[in-house]
Write a structure and sequence with these properties.
- The structure holds two protein chains of two kinds.
- Chain A is globular, with a radius of gyration of 11 Å.
- Chain A has four helices and no strands.
- By secondary structure, chain A is mainly alpha-helical.
- By secondary structure, chain B is mainly beta.
- Chain B is 14% helix and 38% strand.
- The chains are: A mainly alpha, B mainly beta.
């Protein structure tokens, strides 16, 4: 499984959403990506990629696309 | 971290609910961030017994669940820096097994499964007459901590 598959799988599982809808996904754009969903998704990404997010990155992680840029800081390239 | 107990006065520093809605009398053992145990004495004059139900008094399930959630809260608010902080329920899943009658102790055991960035996931068990009366999976939060980690809208 490549990084994109792993990244997508976290969103699909956490938010029970179809892969085709991920590109436009933003915080609070669906009911499951609320405050608790945000923390579940962050924890799932940390487990999946074996990283620990800095607090500022958790706050800045406001969409599916922004998340890809944030993961670059942790040397994880999503493409 | 060491375990300790909280009497009914010390408990008030860690649990914001007050009688008659405080559903714990005594915390017999707490290890902050790990578990909390204790009990509520169900005296016959508890406010809900005459109305739930006339002729068959028993502790409402919603209040049993509340007791478990209040105890889980203590396991978190006893962590350094959390004393006095307000907690909110996020989601609870509960099963009821046995009626809880007046004149007994309602014994409560809770365990923290995870505590991270303001969210606590845990389980709780309630006992009466030495038998399991209810069990719950609970998620609670300290909003003041959780808010610090959320994207700005």
């Amino acid at each position: 499984m490549n990084n994109l598959d792993k990244y997508n799988q976290v969103f699909v599982k956490t938010f029970s959403i179809k892969k085709e809808k991920l590109k436009k996904l933003k915080y609070n754009s669906i009911s499951k990506w609320d405050s608790v969903g945000h923390m579940s998704m962050i924890s799932a990404l940390e487990d999946s990629f074996k990283i620990t997010f800095e607090m500022d990155d958790i706050i800045d992680f406001s969409s599916y696309e922004v998340g890809k840029k944030i993961l670059k800081k942790y040397k994880i390239i999503i493409k | 971290m060491k375990t300790f107990s909280l009497n009914n006065l010390e408990l008030l520093e860690y649990q914001p609910n007050r009688p008659p809605f405080l559903m714990i009398d005594h915390v017999t053992k707490v290890m902050p961030g790990k578990f909390a145990e204790g009990y509520k004495k169900l005296i016959k004059t508890e406010w809900y017994f005459p109305i739930h139900f006339p002729g068959n008094p028993n502790m409402p399930g919603a209040l049993q669940l509340e007791a478990l959630a209040q105890m889980l809260t203590v396991a978190i608010t006893t962590l350094p820096g959390n004393k006095g902080k307000v907690t909110h329920a996020i989601s609870h899943q509960v099963k009821f097994k046995k009626e809880v009658k007046p004149g007994r102790n309602f014994v409560i055991k809770t365990k923290v499964n995870s505590w991270n960035r303001g969210i606590c996931r845990g389980i709780g068990l309630g006992f009466t007459d030495g038998e399991l009366a209810c069990e719950a999976e609970m998620t609670i939060t300290i909003p003041e901590i959780l808010k610090k980690f959320l994207p700005k809208k």
